Amino acid sequence: MDRNEFIIATAIILFAAFILGWFASWLIHRLSRVTRADMGELEKMAQQLHDAEEARDKAVTELEEREADLVAKLGTAESELRAAQDQLAESQTEIEELREYIDRKLTKK
Length: 109
Description:
Structural class: mainly alpha
Number of helices: 2
Number of strands: 0
Strand content: under 5%
C-alpha cells in the first residue's frame, strides 16, 4: 500500500466515523426530544403543583389564625377561672366567718 492509498483509506475511515457519529447524535436527539404533548402535560403538572402549594399555604395560614384565636380564648378562660377561684375562696372565708358568728350568737343564748 503506497502513500496515496493510505491517505485515501484513512480519509474514508474518518469520513465513515464522522457519518456514524452524526447519525448516532441525530438518533439520540430524535429519540430523546420532548414532544408538545409531553410539554403540555408538564405544564399541567406544574400548574397543579402551584395550586397545591397555594392551598397548603392557605391551610397553614388558617391553622395559625385558629391557633392564635384558641390561645387567646384559653388565656381568657384561665383568667376567668382564676377570678372564679379567688371569688370562691373569698366566699368560703366569708361562710366560715358567718358560721363562727352564728355559733357565737347561739352559744351566748
